[in-house]
Amino acid sequence: MSLLYSKTVYPENLLETRPVVFSLAKVFSNHCVLQRNKPLYFFGTCPENSEISVTIYSEGKALACGKRFFKGSEFILLLPALNATDNTTVKAVCKTGNEVFTQELTDVCFGEVFLAGGQSNMEFELQNCVGGKEELASVKESKVRFYYTQKNAFFDEHFFEAENWSGWQTFSQENAEAWSAVGYFFGKELAEKLDCTVGILGCNWGGTSATSWMNRETVDKSLDFKKYVEDYEEKIGNDSLEEQKRKYDEYLAYNAEWQKRIDAFYAKNPNALWEDALKECGDSIWPGPLNSFNPIRTGGLYESMLKRVAPYTVKGVIWYQGESDDHRPDMYHELFTAMINDWRKLFKDDTLPFIFTQLPMHRYIQDADWKHWCKIREAQMKTFNTVNHTGIAVCLDCGKYNDIHPTEKNTVAHRLLLQALKQVYDDTTLSDEECFAPTIKYSEIIDENTIKLNFNNMENGFKIEPSIPYGDPNPIDKINKAVFEVHYFTNDASEAYEKVEYVIDNNAILLKVSNAFDVDEVRYAWTNYGVVELFNKFNQPLAPFRIKI
User: Fold this and answer.
1) Burial of 88 (C-beta count, 10 Å sphere; 0-12/13-18/19+)
2) Which residue did the predictor score with more confidence, 233 or 416?
C-alpha cells in the first residue's frame, strides 16, 4: 500500500494486518437497494484461493447468479442487470478448501440508487432543515432507503467496529433524522416520479476539499494540485505518526468543549458577530492539525470512505461541494474534473452521471466581498459545459446571509432532481426551460448605447421576483442586488467595473451603456452575496456569468 505522505507511515496500514475473512462489503446489508437495469458489482473480502458465488432470489426462484475463483483476498463479481422488484434475497457463498461460508441478505429491493456526496451542505440533516421535523412526523411510509458511509478518517479498530454496525435503513422518524436532507428530498421526488424504491448512499463530510475525495496519485501528478499536499507536509514537519495522533486527539478534545460553548452562545445571541463569539468562547482551531489523521487531508476520505462503498452499482451522483476550495478558486475546474474522472474509474463507469449544485449566494457579515465564490460558480458551470454526463443545479437564490449552511434544502433537491430527470433519464415530458437555469448564450451590440444579451432556456421570457436568501435579517433595499456590470477598454484599472441599468426585452436583456463599442466585458451576479431577482417562467434563476464582448 502506498504512503499517504512522504513523511509518514500510512495510518490505514491496519488493512494489511487484519485477518481476512469472507464478507460482502458492509454496503451490502439487509434492506439494501440495488440498481435496476444495470449490471451489478458485488465485492468484498475472502480467504485466498476461494470460489465465490452470489445468487439473487425472488420467491425462491433464482433471478441471477455469478460465480468465480479468486486467488487473492478480495473479490468482485459482476451479475447481469435485473428489472425493478422488491423483497428479494441475496445469498453469497464462499468455498475455500473444505470450508463453506454463507452470507444472506433479506428485504433487498431493486430500484434507483444515487450517491449523495460533498461537504456539510449535503451532510446537513433532515431534522435540522426547513420542514424537516414536519416531514419526519407526517410520513408514515416511504420508498426511500438510506445508507450512510461511516465517517471515520483512518483505519483503526474503532473503524471496523463502527463499520460492522453500518447498514441500509428504511424510513422511520428515528432512522431518518440524520439522513441528508438534500439526499432525502431528492430521493422522495425521484421515487414518486418513477414509482420505485430509491436508495441514497450518503458519502459526505463537512469542510472537505475536493482533494479529500480524490485518488492521492491523481493529486501527485499535478504540480498545481500538489499545493494541497504541501500544505500538510509543511505542517507535519518531522512529527512521528504517534506525535501526529497525539496532537490530533488533543484538538478533538478541545474542539468538543469549544463546540458546546459556541452552540450555547449562538443559542442566546443568534445575530452576534463572529469576533464577539470568539471573545466569549475562545479561538476556533478548526480544522485542527494538518496531519495524517485529519479527515480533510488529501486523498484521505477517498481511502477511508469512498473506496469502502465502491464499486457499488449506482445510477449517478448528486454533489454539493466547493465551499472549502474557495481559497484556490482558479484551479477548481481542473480539480473538480479530475475528481469526477477518479470517481468514474473507481466505480467502473466511464459515463457515471454527476449532478452537482452551483454554490448559492453567501457572505459572512464580517467579510469583504472577495468574489472567490464567483470563480467557484464559474468553474462549476465550466465543468458542466466541458465534462460529458454532468448536470448543474443553479441555486444562486438558495444561500443564507452570514451562514454557510442555508436550512432550506427542498429547492436544492428539486433542482438536482430536475437535472437528473433530464440528463440521466431523458424525460421528454419536461422542457429544457423547466429543468435548466437560463445561461448566457451570446451578446450583440444593438447601437452605441445598447448591448443585447441572449440566453439559453429562455423561451417564455424573464420575470422579476426579488428573492432574499432565507434568513437574511436586512430589508431588501439595504442589500446589494445581483447586478449587471460592464468593463470598458478605456478603464485603467482592470477591476474597474461599472453597474448598468437593464431592461427586459422578452427573452433577452438590454443593457444601457455609455459607449457599447468600448465595452470589453459584461458580467452578472459577480458577487459572493446579493439579492437575486431574475428568473425564468419556471423559477429557475439566471445563472451568474461573465462574457467578453
Assistant:
1) buried
2) 416
With CA atoms as reference, report the closest residue to 42 among 365, 367, 232, 311: 311
Query: What is residue 359's DSSP assignment?
Result: P
Three-state SS sequence of 498-537 = EEEEEEEECCEEEEECCCHHHEEEEEECCCCCCEEEEECC
**Nearest CA among 229, 306, 442, 427 for reference residue 25:** 306
Average pLDDT rounded to a whole number, residues 133-149: 97
**pLDDT interval class at 124 (50, 70, 90):** very high
Give residue 9's pLDDT. Answer: 40
Confidence of residue 479 (pLDDT cuts 50, 70, 90): low
Backbone angles phi, psi at 402, to 5 degrees: 65, 15
Torsion angle of alpha carbons 496, 501, 505, 506, nearest 10°?
A: 90
Distance CA 266, CA 408 (A): 19
Residue found under cell 451576479 = 525
Quick check: helix, strand or coil at residue 494?
coil
CA dist 194 → 45, 89, 393 (Å): 34, 23, 20
Phi, psi angles (nearest 5°) of residue 151:
-95, 85
373-404: per-residue pLDDT in tens?
999 999 999 999 999 999 999 999 999 888 99
- Hey, what amino acid is at 423? Q
Rg (CA), the chain: 25
Supply 3's cell numbers.
504512503
pLDDT tens digits for range 256-266: 999 999 999 99
Please report how the helices 410-423 and 181-194 are oriented relative to each other, as an axis angle in degrees rounded to 10: 50
CA–CA separation, 163 vs 165, rounded Å? Answer: 5
Task: Quick: pLDDT tens for 423-447.
Answer: 999 999 999 999 999 999 999 999 9
Provide mean pLDDT across the span 457-469. Answer: 84
What b-and-e string marks burial along 382-410, b requiring 16 or more CB atoms within 10 Å of the CB? ebbeeeebbbbbbbbbbbbbbbbbbebbb
What residues are paired with 70 via a beta bridge? 50
C-alpha cell at 508: 433577452
Neighbouring-strand partners of residue 96: 99
Res. 237: pLDDT tops 90: no
Phi, psi of 511 (to 5 degrees): -100, 135
Can you tell me the distance from the alpha carbon of 52 to that of 24, in angstroms, rounded to the nearest whole number?
A: 10
Are the beta carbons of 12 and 304 closer than 8 angstroms?
Answer: yes
